[in-house]
Amino acid sequence: MRPFATILIVAAAIIASSLAGARASAEPAGHRADAAMDYLDVLDLHGSPQAPTDRSFNIFFDAGAWHGYSLPPAGEAETGFSGPFVHSLANGQWVGARFAQLTLQGAASGKGIALSEIASHAAPGYLVRRFSGPGLTVSQTLFYADSWHALVRIELTAKTSQDVDLSVGGRAMSPQEANLAKVGDAVTQTFSHSNSMLRTRLHADGVSAYRITLSGSDYRIALNRPLHLESNQTVTVFVEQTLLYDAHAETPPPVDYATAWAGNRARWAGYLKSVASSNLAGLPDATARRVSVKAILTLLGNWRAARGDLHHDGVIPSYSNPDFNGFWAWDSWKHAAALAWFAPELARDQMRAMFDYQRADGMVPDCIFLRKADNNWRDSKPPMAVWAALEIHRATGDKAFLAEMYDKLVRYHRWWFTARDHDHNGVAEYGSTDGTEIAAKWESGMDNGVRFDAISMLKNGDGAWSMDQESADLNAYLYREKLDLAQVAAILGRTRDQAQWLKEAATMKAAIQARMFDKAGGYFFDVKLGSGDPVRVYGSEGWTPLWAGVATSDQARSVVRTMLDPRKFATVMPFPTLAADDPRFSPIKGYWRGPVWLDQALFGIEALRRFGYRRQADVMARRLVLNAKGLAQQAPMYENYDPLTGQGYQSPNFSWSAASYLLLLQKSRDRPGR
């Protein structure tokens, strides 16, 4: 037998050779230095829809597009891509089964040229398929020029000089709903009860006319003359697919085919620069960086451009869930904080999108949609907007953005105390505008949290109701907002405001420490109005005061003892939203009654670091990465995780999980306790 060291060397050489081959097969001609090659197939993007609503596999979106695509299942003979999936139709649906299906014939012989797939990969910013045929190779690279235009860059390289007839085809998902038409040099697809339109074109330099044929749910666009291929030279043609959300009102800019690909690569090179700073003590840098790339892919895959009644770009929670085709306030603050470090303009727009709908009294709605009639005004979401704005400033130094947002942030902060402080004691409650318990629970972001099982609603005024309990997390967030507003005021030179915010923060700090820390339980709990009795539920809200810096060192020591108890929160995947020894603990189907939510887990890590428990924080952080099943492989990032097994549940491709992992793995950022 070979010595073990020799086996390792041989194995490493085989892996390196295999990876090099994958890189070569994935990279379009002329782009051998693309950094994206280090991160092939981070997510498996193969799939073919079996029904218009099929969300059983991952879909590729980029640049804010509302239409997405996938690689066909491995080994499928047809060229082209699955799609498109149009997210702005109803709650999202596949309108195409196949796009950019390539057909080649010898111009002289009239015989078809058979193509066999060599490779199929997803790289950051594009999908690529490579084929070989008699005497030639072909690559198809799908990428986005902007939020309207998806392009397939078809590159043909012949071993010997030859002429070929080239055409591309597509197939609508449903023959009954195809609605295909020829309009000039394009094929259009329209949709019932919608102003949206999908437009497909073929483009080749020097070609001004194309032959279009329609047959049921199929279409084909052909060059009107043979394409000449010189020996060992690459000829490029493009297929363009444009989605108009409102064909009556939108005029997208024309595509510059000569620069579109280079622009895409430059944009993605900018995103990937941030990955170099991903690090966690005791975790291989390669793992940290791959998880960070997956997080970036997830956030940008959920990026949607301003359309309809959404006036700025933003990030949806997850395209994999039909209920998540809008922007949510709490999600938006977390998305913005992470986006700030690699896509700062999108981070700014994510916040602007929500504040576009700020009410005169300061309230920001729970969620907003393409149709503003669908917006939810029954509640707001936990106040972390100032934190997110400061993250953008830390990442960019953009003082102008803080100046733009300051008055809006102040009004939102003040709204909590005018609309959600029933007894006017400076400590707030979650609530609703319609007096319903369900909307008040939504406002907490922890919809069915055990601590809310026995709430009642109290009226504060017209359209303003509170729960009958003050929440530890809400007031920790509000305390942190006062400190953050003081910092923003200082940056903007508003010294009087700064002093006032610091004064208010000191008053609130004393109230939280006195009212919400229970010495007997050694933990921060919600408290009932009137009696001041603690709601003794051990949940993730109990360490939010540590994250915010509102706890005393003695209080923190006690809370940390509970956090690091393996019977409660130091589980296989740590920091569930409810202690594991609670009889109501439900880690799989409990939603907010036991699963790990990554934002709360991140706050737990930062709480430990803030109070000096760095070693313990690193141990728990490594568990969050290594014990989340499939995270370092190809599994998507899930909405929440089973703390006992690390299995992901609920919505895959979940944006705030991605945002939380990015923030967790950034080593060069000025974060609490670092």
From TrEMBL:
GO terms (BP aspect): trehalose catabolic process
Keyword Acetylation: no
GO MF term list: alpha,alpha-trehalase activity
Entry keywords, A to Z: Glycosidase, Hydrolase, Signal
Domain Glucosidase YgjK N-terminal: 54-191
Signal peptide: 1-22
PANTHER family xref list: TREHALASE
Protein name: Trehalase family glycosidase
